[in-house]
Amino acid sequence: MSESSFQFIPPPGAWPGRMPQPKVVAFGGGHGLYATLQALRHVTTNLTAVVTVADDGGSSGRLRREMDLIPPGDLRMACAALCDESENGFTWRDILQFRFATTGELNGHSLGNLLIAGLWQILDDPVVGLDWLMQLLGAKGRVLPLSRVPMEIAAEIESDGVLNTVKGQSRIAKTPGLIRSIQLNPPDAPVTPEVLAAVAAADWIVLGPGSWFTSVLPHLLLTPLRRALSESTACKAVVLNLSRQRGETQDLPLPDHLRVLNDYAPDLGLNIVIGDPGAVEDIDGLARVAESMHCEVMLRQLSIGDGTARHDSLRLAAAFRDAMSGHWGDLAPLTELDNH
Question: What UniProt keywords apply to this chain's record, in alphabetical order (predicted)?
Answer without folding.
Answer: Cytoplasm
